[in-house]
Design a protein that fits this description.
mainly alpha
């Protein structure tokens, strides 16, 4: 007679629910969801950014072959070290870092305000950074190693004023944008006042800086901005996770135990610091923070603004814009802010018209 042994079947591992359009990626004992379209878009934007950077380093008064550019980037001896490594590369790095910072800052502020019009250059953050920076230049502070930190102080002060005046038992999106626009106009007037009171040569330098120009930028501007972005990476990673709950309606988020006031304040703070540091390094390059997040969202079709894609798009816009600014009217060199404004202003008008028509359809009236 043989004994019968019953072996219990191993318990089946629970299969997590996976929304449509997401892929489940396992990393050791953990796993996370990855949006397929957003991942593919980020990869395509990274390739586009690399191509734009190589073209930027090749083009100029003298064309440099891509092979020579790659030699310089690899640290190999090259006869183009002065042109590529000393003149073009630092300027491109400043544009790349500033564009990425503007893209992320715009995405965070638009998430909090729930309004595509809310960007640092619309709600007064950039103007606050600009006013304090121009004021510092008027009183003799002209070091580009110091100006980024002065800009942060101005941007944080402007954002704090907007936040305080817009708070009425909560942060209403429309009130936040309208008060921000009012502060932006007032701060532009303060900037003009500083320009009229300062020395002529300093005023000319400040005027060029206010248009958003990468001319003359180098490692002295790139290093503080790069270290600041590196230090803010944990905060940006937290913001990417926190924006999911902020995108919910207030009732649902509160029921889930989310402290909306603190989370929104944290997201705005990260966005303000990023935008202010970028403004100090490259000047107020308008409309990059407005364009990049909205284009990224339309490319990925995600519920929240994808911060990685927004950063890549911001970098592409600034670097490509500066390349075109150098080449379109050569030998005359335009500030990159002129080109971004030429593209961003019509887009802003389109957003306003589109929003007006949407409100007209919602109320049953005519747009």
């Amino acid at each position: 007679m043989t004994a019968r042994t019953d072996t219990a079947a191993p318990a089946a591992r629970p299969v997590p629910l996976r929304p449509a359009g997401y892929a489940l990626v396992r990393a050791g004992r953990g796993s996370f969801l990855l949006h397929r379209r957003a991942t593919a878009t980020a990869a395509a934007l990274a390739v586009l950014l690399a191509a734009v950077c190589v073209a930027y380093l090749c083009a100029g008064e003298n064309w440099v072959a891509p092979a020579e550019v790659l030699k310089v980037l690899a640290g190999e001896p090259s006869g183009q070290q002065l042109v590529v490594g000393t003149l073009r590369l630092p300027r491109m790095v400043v544009g790349l870092l500033a564009g990425a910072a503007f893209g992320v800052a715009g995405g965070l502020i638009q998430t909090v305000a729930r309004n595509p019009l809310a960007s640092p250059d619309i709600i007064g953050v950039t103007q606050g950074a600009g006013a304090v920076t121009v004021g510092a230049m008027t009183f003799g502070v002209t070091s580009f190693a110091v100006l980024p930190y002065v800009s942060v102080a101005g941007g944080v002060l402007a954002a704090l004023l907007v936040y305080v005046f817009a708070w009425r038992g909560g942060l209403h999106a429309t009130r936040f944008v309208l008060i921000g626009i009012g502060f932006a106009v007032a701060l532009r007037s303060v900037t003009q006042l500083f320009l009229t009171k300062g020395d002529y040569l300093v005023a000319q330098q400040a005027q060029v800086w206010m248009t958003g120009s990468l001319n003359g930028r180098g490692w002295a501007e790139a290093a503080p901005l790069g270290w600041a972005l590196l230090a803010l990476l944990p905060a940006v990673a937290w913001a990417a996770r926190a924006q999911r709950t902020v995108s919910l309606d207030d009732g649902t988020a509160t029921a889930l135990g989310v402290r909306l006031g603190r989370v929104r304040l944290g997201l705005v703070a990260v966005g303000v610091v990023l935008a202010s540091m970028a403004t100090g390094a490259a000047g107020p390059v308008d409309f990059v923070a407005l364009l990049a997040p909205q284009i990224a969202r339309r490319l990925t079709r995600t519920a929240q603004i994808p911060l990685v894609c927004s950063a890549l798009l911001g970098a592409v816009i600034v670097v490509l814009g500066d390349l075109l600014a150098r080449k379109l009217l050569a030998p005359t060199e335009l500030p990159v802010g002129v080109l971004t404004a030429a593209v961003g202003a019509p887009y802003l008008i389109w957003l306003l018209v589109r929003g007006h028509r949407a409100r007209g359809r919602a109320t049953g009236g005519e747009a």
